[in-house]
Write a structure and sequence with these properties.
Length: 348
Amino acid sequence: MAKHHPHPVVDLRTSPYIRRAPSVDQIMRNVVYALLPVCAFSVYLFGISALALMLVTTLSCLLSEQFFCWMAKKKSTLPDFSAVITGLLLALTLPPGFPLWMGAIAGIVGISLGKILFGGIGCNVFNPALVGRAFVQAAFPVAISTWTPTFAANRFSEFIPSTLALPFMTPAATAEWSKTVAIDGFTGATPLALMKFEGVMVRTSDLFFGTTAGSAGETSALLILLCGTYPVARNMMDWRLPASVILGTAICAEFFYLLDPASYPTPLFMILSGGLMLGAVFMASDMVASPVTPWGIVLYGLIIGLLTVLIRLFGGLTEGVMYAILFANAASPLLETFTQPKVFGGDK
């Protein structure tokens, strides 16, 4: 007669315990989830113009990617959500009143030159959203440096006049729309422009909570940080990367602030203003264009922070995050090469 065990038999296994890594579409979809509150807050600040810009840039990215898949006679890559992220991030880096036809061009360029040209997802050297943004920065310098105020009274019922401007036409602000903003509001300066050209420092609380003019998604540093904790908690983003960007910015800004506090802003202003938080959390962390080695990640972030401060203080532009990230993207392969960990028992 068979002898019964008083306890169930447990199958013991030795390490390593390998778990299946999340797929590309799972990672990208979770990044989209993390971006949605930032997008919603942008619509709250700037109204239907910001919403329309997000829809147009995202749609142009999706259609462009689908077109190239059709041309190459390959399976559609739209389900991986990478084109959605490119479209959303692109819109968040643009002025909320940016003409929609220019936003569509930025999306097409971002996908074609920033992604497809290098072989598609997993092969891009640069962040595709920033490639599209850099193109329109050079092609339409006036439109991309025209800012609108937050909390306009009619922002949910009327478009910002420049939003629906026809191609190659200069929009004029309607009387009804301009009545709801301050005299200098329609071309209001961003905190970085006020600092650089007028020596005026915006209150830290306004930068932290996001009540200032700027690009559609770069206003609230607090919200971006909170949203960034989600992919970090899901192990889909290395926390050292945004932390290194912020640290590099703080070190470089502190150096100049100590040299001349009357001429240079505080490190906290540099960290909270402009697109630094959005760039550090959601753009510099591009898994393809950033290093994977531990020390490579740290150096990568420090370079972005250093270059951002130098461009802001001494460059012709008020903002330097975009060019800093693109430069670091180009340096990423070198950083990985020089920071490869030593194999146990072998030479580095």
